[in-house]
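Reading a protein record of the kind used here takes only a little practice. Each token is a code from a learned vocabulary of local backbone shapes. With that in mind, consider the following protein and its fold in token form:
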Amino acid sequence: MYSVRVEAEFAAAHFLSHYQGKCEKLHGHNYRVRLWARGEKLDDGGKLVDFALLKETLRTICKTLDHTSLNDHAVFSGDPSAERIARHIFEETFRLLPPEAAEGISAVDVYETPANMARYER
């Protein structure tokens, strides 16, 4: 089994409406996002999937979140947790990639800090 990963970053603010503690207040993160693809077959050029295509897609998605208040995005239902952000990026990746590239997408990791991350995977 082959695995490949690309990364992108974005900065955004958010607060968690259903949380008791400091995260219920508006604050920001410099998010790091990792997009993973897996598969058993390589193309004729020896690639699982084109890194450039993955990077471009991930950067496009992150750009829509960059320097925004994540609570303003309806997709997060007022609580833009790292888990919901990971799922959103995963689903947007499937929407934007050609089907042959999307089929190998296996996970999205969203790091709020270097030590704290959430993953959405299929």
